[in-house]
């Protein structure tokens, strides 16, 4: 099987290479693509060096394309990639809301991936992190309302987001005044309740993605979901405070037990030992950390919890590769297994 | 009138001096007290320099004492101060939950201060910031449920909290590994969902303070309130995402209008112009910034909003001085007006 990464030099592209190195996915050739100005860049993979090429105009000679170069490139080029015979796992929001494009988190709705028509969408990072924790609770206790407040890292805006945080923090520590190019305002030691564009209803697109995508992944349009998405001065890993109203009452003990068995989740919930989810411990980790599990004080039988998940991994690269692994396990990826 | 500040060298003490300089409070003598190791320190006030003295064992010869030296000192010494004839406005949590101690935010329940028996409690900073925004909405529309997620600055742990963030951030930027003494974990580029001690119900004391104190200030024990309190790497100003279920439906326009007339609030809510509450703009400001006002997606007729308030000011020093100003305006502070 021939695999291609489009957007190989970005923050998610970097993680895709690392995740593929330790993946169970069987493939031969690996092609790396990015914008023309990155052509010729060499990236390490499995002890070798692979040369990045400029993304071509038309089809790519690959069986599986992992696309993470932004919505406009996916929107423009994915149809040609599909016409050329590839299965596309797309990390952008370009196709997520199209009814015949599956939106997949393998632990939650892997089987939806099998119904693809060439394109499978990877969810928004905030949604992916939340849904691995919420899905098992939804299945067992029935989520009615879900209120999410996020603590999102600068790498959600890519490498340039990380760079701006580090560079501008140095400016502030040197006694200067921070500037902003990537973010709407200076990010060092600040909090910006603005991620992606504002919609007519006053919510940002980032916030509405959590609403739309969680419903689509859980297959339940009746879910009432609200989100406040906030950028904070961290490098990596999105944290989220989540309040759940449930149809059937749950105790924290039941939730901990259930989540302890759930795939993709690490229950990290021992406050006495200062164990709870944090970017410091969740960064670089495949599992989403879930903790601070407690009975809701506003919904009888409901739950409050706190999650921290590496949004470049479960929120992007890891989830995309897990979709590919699932498809291959199900015999739904063509191409020779080893090149 | 003779005023004394106990805890003058701390983060809140520093702000008390600045706020008193521009206050309408009429007073003569100002005495500064702190721990013995700070005795002799000189602090600027109104163009002069005042010398800090060690807090004495018994009474203090003052009519008004602004105490901000921590709960154990207040608990130990406030009764003697009251016995000595002073009115004590206490910034610690030592007396907040005693039924005969008023807990006061002047814009919300100033008249409660008049019923004091010597001690008036200043609320927890997170509560004070939230309640100036929520109280007008509660009066008009009736809050039923309130869900709060906080983004709290390191200065909530005092000067040493700020210092640890700055020092340890320098360590990380220099390629080292951050340590932690003030906070439970390294704070640079991290998120710590742990402020104050954990309670039996799994909530922290900081979270329960928001529950208990909001109810007491609003005078409504039926309010269902939940909080997730989170320390983030900012220097100053607590931000909060707040979701409100209301008895009578409110539109964002109604809320903006109402809050635009409310004391202590600055409506900063023009997303198209990138105007919303942020530490960057709220720090050093007396008013609490309120914005991102939008119809709730989980409670019909409810509201979502985002607030940012300088917790050293409205959350501490400013609120304490405003209580004193209110008492003096009401003729409820004794002592000569000018020394």
Automatic annotation (TrEMBL), chains A, B:
Domain (Semialdehyde dehydrogenase NAD-binding) ranges: 2-116
GO MF annotation terms: aspartate-semialdehyde dehydrogenase activity; NAD binding; NADP binding; protein dimerization activity
Record-level GO BP terms: 'de novo' L-methionine biosynthetic process; diaminopimelate biosynthetic process; isoleucine biosynthetic process; lysine biosynthetic process via diaminopimelate; threonine biosynthetic process
Pathway note: Amino-acid biosynthesis; L-threonine biosynthesis; L-threonine from L-aspartate: step 2/5; Amino-acid biosynthesis; L-lysine biosynthesis via DAP pathway; (S)-tetrahydrodipicolinate from L-aspartate: step 2/4; Amino-acid biosynthesis; L-methionine biosynthesis via de novo pathway; L-homoserine from L-aspartate: step 2/3
Annotated residues for binding of phosphate: 96
EC number: 1.2.1.11
SMART domains in alphabetical order: Semialdhyde_dh
Binding site for substrate: 152, 231
Signal peptide segment: none
Reactions performed catalytically: L-aspartate 4-semialdehyde + phosphate + NADP(+) = 4-phospho-L-aspartate + NADPH + H(+)
SUPFAM superfamilies listed in its UniProt record: Glyceraldehyde-3-phosphate dehydrogenase-like, C-terminal domain (SSF55347), NAD(P)-binding Rossmann-fold domains (SSF51735)
Enzyme class: oxidoreductase
UniProt superkingdom: Bacteria
Database matches in InterPro entries: Asp_semialdehyde_DH, Asp_semialdehyde_DH_beta, NAD(P)-bd_dom_sf, Semialdehyde_DH_NAD-bd, Semialdhyde_DH_dimer_dom
Chain residues that bind NADP(+): 9-12, 37-38, 155-156, 311
Entry keyword set: Amino-acid biosynthesis, Diaminopimelate biosynthesis, Lysine biosynthesis, Methionine biosynthesis, NADP, Oxidoreductase, Threonine biosynthesis
Family to which this protein belongs: Belongs to the aspartate-semialdehyde dehydrogenase family.
Subunit comment: Homodimer.
Function text: Catalyzes the NADPH-dependent formation of L-aspartate-semialdehyde (L-ASA) by the reductive dephosphorylation of L-aspartyl-4-phosphate.
Protein name: Aspartate-semialdehyde dehydrogenase
